[in-house]
Amino acid sequence: MSFFKKIFSSDKKETLDKGLEKSNSSFFTKLSKAVAGKSKVDDEVLDDLEEILVSSDVGVNTTLKIIERIEARVARDKYLGTDELNVILREEIAGLLSETNTGEDTEFVVPTSSKPYVLMVVGVNGVGKTTTIGKLAHQFKKQGKKVVLGAADTFRAAAIDQLQVWADRVDVPLVKQQMGSDPASVAFDTLSSAMNQDADVVIIDTAGRLHNKVNLMNELSKVKRVMQKVVPDAPHDVLLVLDGSTGQNAFEQAKQFTKATEVTSLAVTKLDGTAKGGVVIGISDQFQIPVKYIGVGEGIEHLQVFNKYEFVDSFFK
């Protein structure tokens, strides 16, 4: 298929294949049973496929869109063999993802139009937020960018300590205050420091509690307002980090955070430890927010730029 040409380097593709192995294996075990002994895609096969997609955490609404697309193909082509189903799935899901994920990036890039480029990271505790920040800092530094981190999750001492560990590991400066400090004050100091150092990228961590959405909304709004005193159009990206292994719970977190603040991109982590990789497809479609990064392993190089063609190719390999 023409648009599934190789884009990633072989080692990155191998890491992605391995990271999605559980999702891939689970999906195809179910699909093989569903089409066993059948030669064409009929209503029964489509019913089974619908069930498989939902159980793979693609989500009901997105699953129905995929089934409708395949039904349209069946009606148009008159006869579709079950041996073609895998190819059709890849095409239709890549098409669906194209509606949200327009970028074709394969590398970690930072827009040169904004300096410093300010990235605010949100997400509940335990989703891999700090790890994602550390890995992003590593990748941007590899690109020759000067990176500054800000520990504005002052609600937990552990959050500040964990970010310090990553800052030391990647060898980038971290701006922090004591636990309980005003997060907006930390953000202000971080951006001021970044301006003084002529930094290219600033990554700000924020608190991850959802028990009171009004407080979260107010806090994130204040952090943004204070940032803009230093960098008028900051933040340039609000990245929501979601744990892919939680399946439908990740949908709920996305719903809560998109109500609390404007989220402009997503990172879905921990896909290597789960068979719920379909959640990437569903969340991207349902929230119409591009998935920018995916985590497919624990290593520092295992955070990847999300490329829809490579993802679909690995998921339905």
Automatic annotation (TrEMBL):
Record's family? Belongs to the GTP-binding SRP family. FtsY subfamily.
* InterPro entries xref list: AAA+_ATPase (IPR003593), P-loop_NTPase (IPR027417), Signal_recog_particl_SRP54_hlx (IPR013822), SR_rcpt_FtsY (IPR004390), SRP/SRP_N (IPR036225), SRP54_GTPase_dom (IPR000897), SRP54_N_sf (IPR042101)
E.C. numbers: 3.6.5.4
Query: Which Pfam families does the entry mention?
Result: SRP54, SRP54_N
Main subcellular location of this protein, as a coarse class: membrane
Q: What is this protein called?
A: Signal recognition particle receptor FtsY
Q: How does it assemble?
A: Part of the signal recognition particle protein translocation system, which is composed of SRP and FtsY.
Tell me which residues bind GTP. 123-130, 205-209, 269-272
Quick one: a GO cellular component term?
A: cytoplasm
- Stored Gene3D superfamilies: P-loop containing nucleotide triphosphate hydrolases, Signal recognition particle SRP54, nucleotide-binding domain
Gene that this sequence comes from: ftsY
Output one GO BP term: SRP-dependent cotranslational protein targeting to membrane
| Keyword list, A-Z | Cell membrane, Cytoplasm, GTP-binding, Hydrolase, Membrane, Nucleotide-binding, Receptor
Question: Tell me, what is one Gene Ontology molecular-function annotation carried by this entry?
Answer: GTP binding
